[in-house]
């Protein structure tokens, strides 16, 4: 069983992934942030490094899914391959930060990979307002994220909402993270777990 957590930068994906993995005893796969050789350069020069960064993430996510499929274990994944292809890459292209040539190349690679891996059995989408995202980003204090603009986050949020409205590849749970605190409030975490339980019970 493959569960995936989606959401904008700062929505709380990694934290929730860890908590759900612990509760359900799932194996967790996380986004390759600390060892990513392009991330810091990207935030300082998006136009120069956008293609390199997106290819790195695409490769990393593709390998994760292959590993998940091979092991056959119950797994939860922090961020999906779809977010790279339907949100981050097209957003960079639309902002003029990725050339037509690079974006076409990227899309061809994604289409090939998508044919080889199936969707997750359940997608958990964390919906968040921009003020909440900004608060969370500042709280975790990653130096390279200090240059992220409100405009960039807003563009991503718009694409996330458009994507999730048409998402039909698997079962879907949407969680509005503005109005809950699943880190400090056990009742909020319990409500999320109940929603997930209701969905995954129908997967077997």
UniProtKB/TrEMBL annotation:
Binding site for ATP: 7-15
Catalytic center residues: 78
GO molecular function, one term: ATP binding
InterPro entries tied to this protein: DCK/DGK, Deoxyribonucleoside_kinase, DNK_dom, P-loop_NTPase
Keywords: ATP-binding, Kinase, Nucleotide-binding, Transferase
Binding site for substrate: 31, 43, 54, 79, 84, 145
UniProt keyword annotation of Magnesium present: no
Record has Nuclease as a keyword: no
Any Pfam family the entry gives: dNK
Gene Ontology CC terms: cytoplasm
Residue ranges annotated for the Deoxynucleoside kinase domain, each copy included: 3-198
Protein family (similarity comment): Belongs to the DCK/DGK family.
Protein name per its UniProtKB record: Deoxyadenosine/deoxycytidine kinase
Organism from which the protein derives: Flavobacterium urocaniciphilum
């Amino acid at each position: 069983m493959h569960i995936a957590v989606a959401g904008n930068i700062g929505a709380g994906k990694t934290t929730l992934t860890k908590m759900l993995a612990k509760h359900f005893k799932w194996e967790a796969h996380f986004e390759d942030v600390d060892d990513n050789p392009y991330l810091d350069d990207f935030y300082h020069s998006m136009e120069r490094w956008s293609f390199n960064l997106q290819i790195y993430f695409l490769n990393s996510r593709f390998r994760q899914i292959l590993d998940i499929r091979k092991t056959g274990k119950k797994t939860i994944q922090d961020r999906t391959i779809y977010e790279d292809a339907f949100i981050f890459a097209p957003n960079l292209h639309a902002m003029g930060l990725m050339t037509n040539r690079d974006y076409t190349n990227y899309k061809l690679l994604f289409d090939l990979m998508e044919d080889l891996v199936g969707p997750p059995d359940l997608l958990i989408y964390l919906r968040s307002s921009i003020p909440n995202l900004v608060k969370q980003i500042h709280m975790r204090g990653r130096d390279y994220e200090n240059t992220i603009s409100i405009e960039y986050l807003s563009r991503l949020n718009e694409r996330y909402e458009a994507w999730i409205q048409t998402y039909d590849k698997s079962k879907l749970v949407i969680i509005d993270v503005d109005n809950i605190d699943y880190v400090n409030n056990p009742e909020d975490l319990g409500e999320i777990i109940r929603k997930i339980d209701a969905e995954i019970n129908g997967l077997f």
